[in-house]
């Protein structure tokens, strides 16, 4: 389904929720009921008409557009080829991670040694790769879902293993809102699957909070990283002490 179709679908749902029939809407915007039905039956609608209908229905236009964007099917992962393209340029990977964190263009160039033209060029490349959809005034929307993850054992995750994990765990984890846990246990396969489901739910909750906090100003938010691992594992130092 195209973006215009999704917008009309969301608008139709908003009208139903508000109890506004096509007949009532037609009276509010000075059109015949048949014309309104025909308009909603089309696959596109002029922005001026959309704004008029939203105003008449008492529905914020920005809410309709945002819900349509949220309803658009989005990928949970990139392809190996897409990830390889990111890994071929460290600056492209940097901007990709910033976009996943909903940084603005200004925030990126104020923080990192990137010029505005260079950063825009990198965002254009991310648009080409399908990670973002670049919009006027250098704004963008994500083309991946809020549950996006790097490919297991893919190019980016391999890079993280080699260069990021040690750096990440070298921190003290004693700041406000920080913690580090290493909890051994012996579980059945069923219990392990149950715990894995809860980890996935935690990741979804992180995504929800991340989206909700986008309304806050930048100085009210800080970059955080949740790094989770769950596998059958024993320290090699302990394995060396096992009885033969």
Automatic annotation (TrEMBL):
All copies of domain HTH cro/C1-type, residue ranges: 11-64
Record-annotated membrane-spanning stretches: none
InterPro entries per the UniProt record, alphabetical: Cro/C1-type_HTH (IPR001387), Lambda_DNA-bd_dom_sf (IPR010982)
Superkingdom classification of source: Bacteria
Pfam (any one): HTH_26
Name of the featured protein: Helix-turn-helix transcriptional regulator
Provenance organism: Massilia aquatica
């Amino acid at each position: 389904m195209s973006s215009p179709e999704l917008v009309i679908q969301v608008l139709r749902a908003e009208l139903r929720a508000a109890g506004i029939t096509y007949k009532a809407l037609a009276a509010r915007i000075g059109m015949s009921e048949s014309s309104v039905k025909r308009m909603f039956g089309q696959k596109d609608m002029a922005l001026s008409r959309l704004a008029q209908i939203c105003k008449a229905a008492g529905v914020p236009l920005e809410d309709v557009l945002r819900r349509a964007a949220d309803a658009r099917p989005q990928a949970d992962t990139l392809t190996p080829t897409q990830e390889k393209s990111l890994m071929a340029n460290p600056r492209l990977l940097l901007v990709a991670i910033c976009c996943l964190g909903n940084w603005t263009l200004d925030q990126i160039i104020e923080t990192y040694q990137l010029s505005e033209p260079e950063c825009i060029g990198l965002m254009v490349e991310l648009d080409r790769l399908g990670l973002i959809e670049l919009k006027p005034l250098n704004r963008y929307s994500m083309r991946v879902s809020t549950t996006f993850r790097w490919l297991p054992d893919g190019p980016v995750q391999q890079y993280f293993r080699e260069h990021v994990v040690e750096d990440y765990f070298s921190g003290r984890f004693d700041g406000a809102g920080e913690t580090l846990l290493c909890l051994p246990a012996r579980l059945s396969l069923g219990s392990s699957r149950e715990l894995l489901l809860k980890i996935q739910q935690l990741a979804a909750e992180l995504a929800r909070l991340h989206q909700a906090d986008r309304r806050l100003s930048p100085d009210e938010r800080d970059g955080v990283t949740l790094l989770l691992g769950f596998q059958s594992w024993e320290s090699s130092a302990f394995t060396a002490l096992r009885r033969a």
